[in-house]
Amino acid sequence: MLVLGDSILWGQGLKPEHKSWYQVKAWLERTTGRRVVEKIEAHSGTVVELASTDDRLSASNPEVNVALPTVNDQLDDAMKFYADASQVDLVLLSGCGNDVGIQRLLNASGTAEINNLTAEKCGPPMERLLRRITTSFPAAVVIVSGYYPFFSERSRNDFILKGLTKRFLKTVPGAAKMNSKEILVRLTSNSKDWYEASNKTLSEVAQKTNAELGGDRKRIMFARIDFPVEYSFAAKQTRLWGFDRSPFRMMALLISFGRILLPANDEVRGQRTASCREVFKRQSNETADQRKERHTRRLLCRYASLGHPNKKGAVLYSDAIIGLLPAALSLPK
Q1: If pLDDT is split at 50, 70 and 90, which confidence band does 234 have?
Q2: Which of 93, 108, 19 is nearest to 312 (CA)?
Q3: How far apart are the C-alpha atoms of 196 and 201, rounded to whole Å?
């Protein structure tokens, strides 16, 4: 089993045993009675194809959100790793979310812009990638995982969320200032548009590439993630990592008048924070602007788990993928 792609299938913020790919591996071993050998190339922050605006950083810890290696680079590395390409039976793939960019999605002007961005970044680049994967591993079935809406009307619109959106939302010159309720409406609408657009585009890409391959065997499948509004970020039944809102943390936040930041509530934040400090450490002769940019990148790295599937969210992904495996691999249900 080969795992390619971004933070979704890497399992941002999760211990190994809670990641969706691990649960898929465990199910396959129970079902087939055979050992599953996994190769994990996915990492946080990766893009399918590198753009001129993407960073050129790489990191040894896959939790650090950097663009390199790209998903195509991951495929190259995997091809070098396997002595026999026919050994690969299953490829799990998630990609194109970072090519679009979370900030661009949250700041998009509306449905048309999101549809255009998604078609551009999740269409032809993913088609090219799927052709490479199916050619490189001719015996493998490929399952492409979908994305989910980040915000909904159930997201808790408190001062913590307001502070988060203030950091990510750009101020458009001349535009009327939005209140917190209007901001959440916009985030909710854009999140829904992204969910629908990405599902449509990725599903169509899988179908189109399948048709090109021909034959009776369906080699590429799309795993849609059912994600009701109750599961969105900062909702009561959220399936996404958020902030540690323990009484102690909240008290410290109030006493400090917001100067102390709440930590993320994922399982590996300590290791990630240490890696973020190493990747985004001070450079000699850096300018004031470079220092500001580095501090921002390090902060974003520290909070890279926010909005990613938590333990229950990872189960949504593993269940969606496992639901396709009996037909994909001719296994008992």
Answers
A1: very high
A2: 19
A3: 9
What string of DSSP letters covers 228-293? -GGGSTTSTT--B--B---HHHHHHHHHTTT-SPPPB-SSSHHHHHHHHHHHTPPPTT--HHHHHH
Of 314, 227, 230, the residue nearest 266 (C-alpha): 314
- CA-to-CA distance for 46 and 29, rounded, in angstroms? 29
Picking from 99, 8, 37, 3, the residue whose alpha carbon sits closest to that of residue 317 is 8
Which pLDDT belongs to residue 166?
67
Q: What is the pLDDT of residues 107-166, one digit of tens each?
A: 888 999 999 999 999 999 999 999 999 999 999 999 999 999 999 999 998 877 777 776
Output the pTM of the full model. Answer: 0.93
Residue 259: band (very low, low, confident or very high) from pLDDT cuts 50, 70, 90: low
Residue recorded with tokens 């890696």: 275
First to last CA, the chain: 19
Distance CA 198, CA 233 (A): 18
- Compute the C-alpha angle 147/150/153, nearest 5°: 130
Could you give the domains of the chain? 2-329 (3.40.50.1110)
Q: How far apart are CA 187 and CA 191, in angstroms?
A: 6
Query: What does the alpha-carbon distance between residue 15 and residue 33 come to, in Å, rounded to a whole number?
Result: 24
Read off φ and ψ for residue 196, nearest 5 degrees: -70, -40
